[in-house]
Design goal:
The protein has 148 residues and is mainly α. Helices cover 72% and strands 0% of the residues. It is built from 6 helices and no strands. Helix 2 packs antiparallel against helix 3 and helix 2 packs antiparallel against helix 6. The chain is elongated, with a radius of gyration of 21 Å. The N and C termini lie far apart (47 Å).
Length: 148
C-alpha cells in the first residue's frame, strides 16, 4: 500500500499556490466565517425562548414576536453562510434587530417580568454585537476589495 500520510509542512507542495487561491475563493474573503454559527444559535435561542423561560402563556404577543424575530435571525445566518457576498450588506439589520429585541418587552408585551426582560436583553445584546461584528467585517472586506 502507498503511504498517503502527510507529515510535515505543505510549504514544499508543488500546488501550494493553487491550493491557497482555491481556499481564498471558497472562503470568499470572509473575515467572520466563525460568526455564522453563533448568529444561527442566537436566532434559535430567540425563537424558543418563550417556551424555555415559560412566558408563552402569559405574553402571547411577545412569544409570537420572539418566534418571528428568531426565525428572521436564523434566515440571516443561513444567508450569511450560503451567499456571504450578498448577505453581509444586510448585517447592519442585525444591529437594529438586536436593539429592537431589548425594548420589545415593553412595546410588544404587557407588564413583563424580570425573566422576560433579561431574556430579551441578553438575546438582543448578543444579536447587536454579532451584527456589529458582521458589519465591521463587511466594511473592511468592501474596502479591501475596492483597493484591489
Amino acid at each position: 500500500m502507498a503511504d498517503v500520510s502527510h507529515r510535515g509542512d505543505l510549504a514544499g507542495h508543488p500546488d501550494i499556490t493553487e491550493m491557497r487561491d482555491r481556499y481564498a475563493r471558497v472562503l470568499g474573503g470572509r473575515d467572520v466565517a466563525l460568526v455564522d454559527g453563533p448568529v444561527f444559535l442566537v436566532g434559535l435561542a430567540c425563537a424558543v425562548s418563550p417556551w424555555i423561560v415559560h412566558f408563552s402563556g402569559s405574553q402571547p404577543a411577545l412569544a409570537a414576536h420572539n418566534l418571528i424575530m428568531g426565525a428572521a435571525i436564523v434566515v440571516l445566518a443561513l444567508g450569511f453562510t450560503v451567499m456571504p457576498q450578498r448577505m453581509y450588506g444586510l448585517s447592519w439589520a442585525m444591529c437594529v434587530m438586536g436593539a429592537w429585541m431589548i425594548i420589545a418587552p415593553w412595546v410588544v408585551g404587557s407588564s413583563p417580568d424580570k425573566g422576560v426582560i433579561w431574556t430579551n436583553a441578553v438575546i438582543g445584546g448578543l444579536t447587536f454585537l454579532l451584527g456589529l461584528a458582521c458589519t465591521v467585517a463587511s466594511m473592511r472586506s468592501g474596502r479591501s476589495s475596492r483597493a484591489s
